[in-house]
Design brief:
single chain; alpha+beta; Aminopeptidase; seven-stranded mixed β-sheet; six-stranded mixed β-sheet; 8 helices
Length: 278
């Protein structure tokens, strides 16, 4: 069962046993400072091992005083001028320990070595990119089920995809004939003019054709037209293809979120990458 997204005061959080955490997706400054203690009590009551917060610089002091540590930093994340931070509070020591740290650093070093070496690659003949609609939801969910064993959000569910399409998420898909073979999404915050580039998936039979690079290029163009100023992603730290995709496209490394996400069957650390769009 997927974790649930709820409002606490005016703050939006995802919580549940699947990711064994509370993720503060949108921290409302008006809820400070009381919401910080509330989140800790909630996490302890449910036995969660981590609280993960995306926060503006103005909230940093309140969080650091309560034992949070900075794991990543994105300059100008909020409305193009206020810095953003990803912070963590660990409630179980085992969640703080990353046994694959050396491999993560190796992947990161390789990705950073090709920073900015982007070259536009035309979409392979026979493939086409589209903005997904409700009619694509079933095929999108099928692709995500085929690519991921587990995922932090319920993208295997056709109903969830349709619901979020009507809200703040724009999905993109690559089709080969009648089949969706690659996909991604852009989760927009229009008020703060930032967007998370996420949910990249390519069917194993269609890898090696630069489909994710083509998707990212299309997404950036559309998000720029939508008025988004900053783009960021939270990428699997052990995946060289996804880290190299963003590094090559001009994204800067912002930090690593330790054992942050239940994806592909285990808890993985995630790298934050960011880029100014406009």
């Amino acid at each position: 069962m997927s974790d649930e997204i709820v409002k606490i005061g005016h703050t939006v959080v995802q919580k549940g046993p699947h990711n064994d955490r509370i993720y503060v997706m949108k921290l409302a400054p008006r809820d400070l400072p009381w919401v910080i203690d509330y989140l800790k009590d909630l996490a302890l009551d449910h036995g969660y091992s981590k609280i993960f917060v995306k926060a503006p610089a103005s909230a940093l002091g309140n969080l650091l005083k309560k034992g949070y540590v900075i794991e990543a930093h994105v300059p100008h994340l909020f409305d193009g001028h206020e810095d953003g931070f990803f912070l963590a509070r660990y409630l179980k020591e085992i969640r703080r320990h990353e046994p694959k740290g050396d491999r993560i650093q190796e992947v990161l070093a390789r990705a950073l070595a090709i920073a900015g070496r982007y070259r536009h690659v035309s979409l392979t003949p026979g493939y086409s990119i589209h903005t997904a609609t409700h009619e694509d939801a079933a095929d999108l969910a099928k692709l995500y089920r085929e690519v991921f064993v587990t995922y932090p959000f319920p993208i295997f569910d056709e109903g969830y995809l349709k619901k979020t399409m009507a809200e703040n998420i724009r999905y993109f898909c690559v089709r080969k004939e009648d089949e969706i073979v690659a996909a991604s999404s852009a989760e927009m915050d229009p008020g703060l003019r930032n967007v998370e580039m996420t949910d990249f998936a390519t069917h194993p039979d269609h890898r090696g054709r630069q489909l994710s690079a083509n998707l990212l290029h299309r997404m950036e163009d559309e998000m720029l037209r939508e008025g988004m100023k900053m783009a960021y992603t939270i990428a699997r730290s052990l995946s060289y293809p996804v880290n190299s995709l963003f590094s090559r496209a001009g994204y800067a490394y912002g930090g690593t979120l330790v054992k942050n996400t239940n994806i592909c069957g285990s808890f993985e650390s995630m790298n934050v990458w960011y880029k100014r769009l406009g």
